[in-house]
Amino acid sequence: MDLRDWLDRAVTAVRSWEAGYGEFERHPSLRVDPARFDAAFGELTTRLRDNYPYFHPSYAGQMLKPPHPAAVAGYLAAMLINPNNHALDGGPATSVMEKEVVARLATMFGLAEHLGHLTSSGTIANLEALWVARELHPGRGIAYSAEAHYTHGRMCGVLGMPGFAVPADDRGRMSVAALDELLAGGRIGTVVATAGTTGLGAIDPVHEIAAVARRHGVRVHVDAAYGGFFTLLAGLEDAAGLDPAPWRAIAGCDSVVVDPHKHGLQPYGCGAVLFGDPSVGRLYRHDSPYTYFTSDELHLGEISLECSRAGAAAAALWLTFELLPPVAGDPAGLGSVLAAGRRAALDWSSRLAGSSRLELYQPPELDIVCYYPVPGSPAAGSAAAGTPAGLAAIDRESARMLAEGMDDKEHPVFLSTLTVSANAFSRRHPGVTADADRARILRSVLMKPESETYLPTLHARLEALATS
Ligand SMILES: Cc1ncc(COP(=O)(O)O)c(C=O)c1O
Q1: Does ligand 1 lie within 6 Å of residue 223's CB atom?
Q2: Which of 107, 240, 255, 325 would disulfide-bridge 339, Cβ 3.0–4.6 Å?
């Protein structure tokens, strides 16, 4: 699977399609001097080296990795045409592809009916779901977990709606009892359940949240921007298998967001929002005298808050799904990619459990592992080995490991940090002295399937860093 072959085929196919429209003269204003192109391109590729190696399993930090070659080839082929999926005249082929991939996502979540579309990001997808929530329950607020993505609070501000953070339990999942109490007050119109939190990868109990919400006449939106594709592992008879209850419950919720540009192997610019009730499309109704003229079929711009959207994003996802279908139980499907990362997280947690230098912060629910240098070890900065170190030392050591890992010229390793409150830390590790009100711990998203085989190397590297 050499990417260069597919890129070449993409260019050839589009050039051949273009040739069918007859000769015309390219305007000289677009011409550039080849020598200048060469120099500028050289500078571009040199400057691009100033990046972290997201492709390599030694990059075990944030949710970042390059797209699958199929996504790159699909994106490039369509981008050379540059369709716009706003209206059917802007991107007839890619609009149909978008409807097809959204239907595949709906099937993946078990939605009986759906209305949905791709977006430029998870933030915009969630914004649309919250906007629909506001239109259906004007004057009522949004409840989301204290561990929910920060953009929910911000988007409530954008939409002029009150947002309420519901406390999380000692595993970072929304407290259903606290939610019940909040909903009893009658001020909430929609609750956001997060299926895979950004920090810890915790899965809110969507099934329990939905039951409580229904009792109070409240809508449920599921933010599965990061975690959504893990539904492919729900109920799987495999080490990577997940408790199906929260995942199955998504089918009965009002809306769900999933980001193909996270676990769907896509380049950035690909989120998705789906509604279980297609009639919410009426809320988007607007007049656009200069579009929607080629067909009475649904133009995606008629059900989207954004206007222009890349048809290439739909093409890339369509080609990826043809090759790696988002179908549970398909060994050649996308689920196998996620399963490898999940197994890596499980493997790492047992290695961390046996480590005297590193400690697991909490058991991983998906593929995000959070851990910290062991208090009292010489590495944790205590005055003497055996003296329990507190949060301040853990914070310092985590920062040191992050920096030294990245700076190491020979064996670099790239992590991320998560800031946790003293209260959250103490609930998980009461033995650690809370001598600061918060601390950074280490966090690794194992979203590359290669993490599974690389894990022994990664763990050994971190053990060494913890003692250096
Ligand atoms: C759970 C969750 N929701 C929303 C977002 C925001 O998505 P985006 O960065 O695509 O806007 C993220 C990003 O990490 C996320 O993890």
Answers
A1: yes
A2: 240
